[in-house]
Specification:
11 helices; mainly alpha
Length: about 210
């Protein structure tokens, strides 16, 4: 079955970046200052969901450190079976919080029991995939947005719950985007490439905080 949504690749993102820079002066500033953003692509796998769980409300560096320890504990490949074998206590020992260990073990159980079939998500629409993801314990809209954007490479996802996006938008144009409604309204002109616009804002934010 073919995907029901378009997906981004390097060529289509390059075209979208140029189009967004033409229509939005703020994004034009990003492109002129730092050039185009990276594609930032992740595999559509169980391991990516675990990493997303680890990234919830902590720095990317901290999440990566814990994920690297998990990968070592799993013999180099983070799979649902190997996470089950590591177990809750093993996850806690390498730096998982009690809550994130619980989420990860439950996700592994859902995958092993085929309650959650990650390989089928690329065949789903954004809304269908989001519903399946957020039905999992510990995976909310932000987690779904990140997976849709970076693993399924959907071009028009707007992760309004992402702190780096909100801070980056405020830094770029001085607006107050603490209200999700205001952030969503600001991003309307970026359709149908809000995922690309988000990458551009992230690019600005990450470059500016180094």
């Amino acid at each position: 079955m073919a995907p029901t949504e378009q997906t981004l690749d390097a060529e289509s993102m390059s075209r979208a970046v140029k189009k967004l820079a033409r229509i939005d002066p703020v994004l034009r500033t990003v492109l002129k200052t730092y050039g185009p953003p990276p594609l930032w692509k992740r595999p559509a796998t169980f391991a990516t969901f675990v990493r997303i769980i680890l990234e919830q409300q902590v720095s990317l560096a901290s999440a990566k450190s814990t994920f690297d320890k998990l990968r070592q504990s799993c013999g180099g490949s983070v799979t649902a079976l190997r996470v089950q074998q590591v177990g809750d206590d093993g996850l806690r020992e390498i730096g998982f919080s009690r809550q994130k260990a619980r989420y990860t073990i439950r996700l592994a159980d859902d995958v092993r029991c085929r309650r959650f079939q990650i390989g089928s998500l690329h065949q789903k629409s954004n809304d269908e995939a989001r519903d399946l993801i957020t039905a999992r314990l510990g995976l909310g809209n932000w987690s779904a947005d990140v997976f849709l954007m970076m693993a399924l490479m959907r071009p028009d996802v707007f992760p309004v719950g992402d702190l780096a996006l909100i801070k980056g938008m405020a830094s770029l144009d001085g607006g107050d985007y603490t209200s999700p409604e205001k952030a969503i309204a600001r991003g309307e002109s970026w359709r149908p490439f809000r995922s690309v616009a988000t990458r551009m804002v992230w690019h600005w934010y990450l470059k500016g905080t180094r």
